Structures are given as structure tokens and as C-alpha cells.
Amino acid sequence: MPIQISNDTLKEHLKKTFGFSQFRGEQEAIIQNTLQGNNSFVLMPTGAGKSLCYQLPAIVMPGTAIVISPLIALMKNQVDQMIAFGVNAQFLNSSLTRSEMNRVKNEVLSGDVKLLYIAPESLNKQENLNFLQQANISFVAIDEAHCISEWGHDFRPEYRKIRAIIESVDEKLPIIALTATATPKVQLDIQKTLNLEDAKVFKSSFNRKNLYYEIRSKKDIDKQLIRYIKSHSGKAGIIYCLSRKRVEEIADLLHVNGIKALPYHAGLDPAIRMANQESFLNEEVEVMVATIAFGMGIDKPDVRFVIHYDAPKSLEGYYQETGRAGRDSLDGTCILFYTYDDILKLDKFNKDKAVSEKENAKLLLAEMVYYANLGVCRRKQLLNYFGEYMAENCGFCDNCLHPTPTFKAEREVVLVLQAIQETEEKFDAEHIADVLEGKVNQYVQSYDHDKLPVFGAGKTVSWNTQAVDDDDDDDDNEDEDEDNPTPKKPKLKKKSQKDNHTEDEKSPWISFIKQITIHGY
Ligand code: ADP
Ligand code: ZN
């Protein structure tokens, strides 16, 4: 049932309950859309204020709003927050005892509860469905709606059943789906699976102007890491690592180097995990070394840097994680330490997955490879990934501040394509490079690739390393091969402060091939 509430009255509620005097961005329009009984699809970056878009209408509408949320730990935080604001909120999930569940249900049925947070698993239970059918529900919010999509970074199969369940409760209930992941692919998938094609879409820009994006070679990473943190002493930062073991190692490494750091990962005892998180939030430690288990729902506004020790599995994931820097709108630095070996490692993790999942994962990784290797403005690439077009370079990323030298490479591209074709598209970059350079080794010989027309055709290429914008001749050229004074040795790029390539790539062809081929590997 649509309800009429003036914008002035909404503002009064905003002030009275939350203490804010202005709505941010499109919050007001989003709230009005739900009040009018329409469906909404809200795409906003992390920290933009999505929660308020369902919390406020829940307060002003009669009945209970259902909030579907994927993380049990987050639910409790949100409920505590709402209770602190004087709003009766409850949650229903597997952490409750039977009698606690009954108490919550009775409170909802008596009409006292404004917001009920439910985990998708609990929604699937018949007894909970029966209960919801009896309750007076105002609308349904689907938080972290990207969990519905296999293209997202956090797929939860139970999310796929949500729409059918909502319809079995009441097909006229307004729905508001919210996410901070907005690649066009994920957006379409969410709308289709939730049957939300009719929803009004509220998409705000994903540009985080205050974040500086940088990619560094993983060479001497521990030294680089310690140097960076020490030169930003007193600032809060998060270091993301792929494995729990690595998290522990790096936390120890920082600790012995006099940096106040603690580990956080799902394998830690919950009490320790909570204590470590609290220490970070309360500024007893400066650096949180964590797996991606850390961060969702954590509202620490003054995180000044987010460092990726290992390459993330997707650009969405990367964007979520870096998004935790600079939520207070002050500057934040996002550094990704990149080596192609990490991509190969991540690719290996996928080997037991089903074919379609494996293909998805490969594509997501390929996007990551592109991002790490291209000399294009990082922000342009990231926003483009989220379906946003940026006309100008940002001027606030490594590629803008230290442009990669560029060169014309028509002949080289043709040679690579020819080599790929002649080897029947079956070989990796290293092998193609050997063929182009005319290297005779057992693999090349065993496939008779030394007899191909293209064999050795890349030997005579004179790499034109003339920089178009070659202004960063600073001191950090430790990759320059000083022991090898032969100036003729071809190099794809003049090594610069941010060397994008793996330390062990010997032939310039290898990185070149990886940059121009579709999968990047
Ligand atoms: P998201 O879910 O989009 O990541 P949150 O809902 O957690 O973001 O909001 C981020 C922060 O912004 C929270 O601290 C929240 O209280 C604050 N916030 C939300 N709306 C407003 C507003 N209109 N004015 C001021 N602060 C707001
Ligand atoms: Zn830029």
C-alpha cells in the first residue's frame, strides 16, 4: 500500500532517528520510491549510505521490513546499531536458539518490530515461510544483491531462490535490492534473477575520487611493504593476502619490524578475530593483515591505505576491498603488488570447478591481468568495468602520474598472431616467445615448431622503446640489468618506477604476448 509522506517529514525522521540533516545523493528519491510501493534497484559504492535507504522507510511504514542479508555477523552489528538509534530491530538466523527464534517471531507478529534481518538460508525453511505469511510485512530489502550472481565476487546459491519465496509470502510487496557491485553483467543478472526488470534503477557514480590507485612489481615485496608502512606511520591500513598462512606470516613480519599489526582471517578463533578487529577499530594497532574475510560491513572511515599483497580474483573484489580506504572522503592509497605468477596460482585453484564456473573465473582473472598490465589510466579502466565512461584521464593514479612509454607495434602484433595460428592456438606465451625468438628446446622440437615459417621471425625485431612520455627517470630503477651492459638486448619497455611485469620474464615477447592476447595468459 503506497503511503504519502512529504520530503520535509522524511527529513525530520532523518534528523530525529539518525541525527543527519541532509540526505546523501539519491537517498530521498529511493526512499520515496519504496514508500510509493515500487521496486528499486540501488547501485552505490561502498560507504555511500545504502542502509539508510531501507532503514528509514522501515521506520515510517506500518509493519515490519524484511532485510535479507548474507552475513550473520553483519546482521548483529546492524541490529545493535538500529537498537542504539531507538528502533526495534531483530534478526532471524541459525545462531539463535529455538526459544530465541520464537521470541523474535512473536514480537514481529505483535507488530513491534520495524526491521527483521534474515539470512537467505533461514528464508528457505518452511516454518519461517509460514511465519512470514502471517506477519504484516511492509517491504523486502535484499542487501548485497550481487550475491545472487555467479559473475559477482561473492556468489551465494540460496540468493537465487529469494524472488520465489517473496512471491509466496505476498507478490505485491515492494522490493529494494542493493549492491556495491555494478558491472553491467552482474547488474543484468541481478535484475533478471530477481525479476526486477521493472524496478527503478538508482545508480550513482562509482568513482572514488579520493583514492589513488597504483600497481607495483612484487619484487622485494617485503622490503617495499615495510618501507611504505614505516613512511606512513600512525596511519591506519589494511593488507590483503590470499591465504591465512600468508596473513600470519606478514603480521609476524611487520610485528618484528616494529609495526603494530594484527592478523584477521576466518581460521582464527572467533574471540581472537573479534578482539583483533576491535583493536584495529579502536586504533590500538595501525595495520590489519587480513584475508578478504575482513572488511564487509566494517565502517572505519579513516583507513588511509589498502595494500594487496597478492592479486585478487576479480576486479570487483579488488574494487570492494580498495573501497575500504578513505571512506571519510580524505585521501586513500591503494597499492596492488602484482606478479603474473599470482594469476597462475589463482587459476590453479579453479581447476576443480565446473566448466562454466571455471570459464567465469578465467575471464575475471583475465580482466585482472589487463588491469595490471595496461598503461591506461587505472580509474578509467575500473569505471569502465562498472559500465561508466570517463572522458579524461584522472590525473590521480600511477599511470596518469608516471605514464608508461608507448610504441607502435603493428609488426610485432602480426608476428604474435601468426605464431599463435601456426601453433594452432594451443600454447602459452612462453612457448610462443621461444618460437618467435627461434629458440630450439625440447618442447619446440618435439612439436616440430622449429620448422614453422614463423620460427625465429621475431629475432630481428628492433623494439622501438622510444617513450612517448618519458619523464620519470628517477632513482628506483633497481630492475635495470646493470650486470649486462649490452645495449642491444631488446626490452619491451624501459623499466620505470612501476614495473608492471613479473620479475622472471626473460623474453620481452612474453609480456608483450600476455598484454595483447584475449585471456592475457
Ligand atoms: P554502504 O552500505 O553503502 O556501504 P552505509 O549504509 O554503511 O554505506 O553508510 C556509510 C556511512 O555513511 C555510515 O556511517 C552512515 O551512518 C553514513 N550515512 C548514511 N547516510 C548519511 C547521510 N544522509 N548523512 C550523513 N551520513 C550518512
Ligand atoms: Zn588515472
TrEMBL record:
Q: Which cofactor does it need?
A: Mg(2+); Zn(2+)
Give the signal peptide, or none: none
Q: Region entry Disordered: which residue ranges? A: 465-506
- Give the catalysed reaction(s), semicolon-separated: Couples ATP hydrolysis with the unwinding of duplex DNA by translocating in the 3'-5' direction
A GO molecular function assigned to this protein is: DNA binding
Q: Where is the composition biased (Basic and acidic residues)?
A: 497-506
Q: What Enzyme Commission number(s) does the record list for this chain?
A: 5.6.2.4
- Domain Helicase ATP-binding: where? 31-200
Question: Does this UniProt record's set of keywords contain tRNA processing?
Answer: no
Chain intervals with Acidic residues compositional bias: 468-484
* Domain Helicase C-terminal: start-end pairs: 221-369
List the GO terms this entry assigns under cellular component, sorted alphabetically. Answer: bacterial nucleoid; cytoplasm; replisome
Source species, domain of life: Bacteria
EC top class named in words: isomerase
Q: Alphabetically, which GO biological process terms does the record hold?
A: DNA recombination; DNA repair; DNA replication
- Which family does the entry's similarity section mention? Belongs to the helicase family. RecQ subfamily.
- Designated name of the protein: ATP-dependent DNA helicase RecQ
